[in-house]
Amino acid sequence: MNEIDPIETAVPPPRLVSVRKGRLEAAGKDVTAPLILSLVVIALILVANPLTNGVFFTANNLTNLLRQMTTIPGLLSLGMLFVILTGGIDLSVGSVVGFSAVIAAIATVQWGFPVWLAFLLGIATGAFWGLISGSIIARFKLAPFVVTLAMMTFIRGLTYVFSEMSISTRDFPAFTTLGSAVVFGIPVSTMIMVVFFIFGAVFLNLTPLGRSTIAIGGNRETVRLAGISVPKGIITAYVISGICSGVGGVLLASRLGNIQPSLGGAFELDAIAACVIGGASLSGGKGTIQGTAMGVLILAVMNNLLSLRNVDTYWQSILKGIIIIVVVLIHSSSSKRRGQ
Question: What's this model's pTM, rounded to 2 decimal places?
Answer without folding.
Answer: 0.85
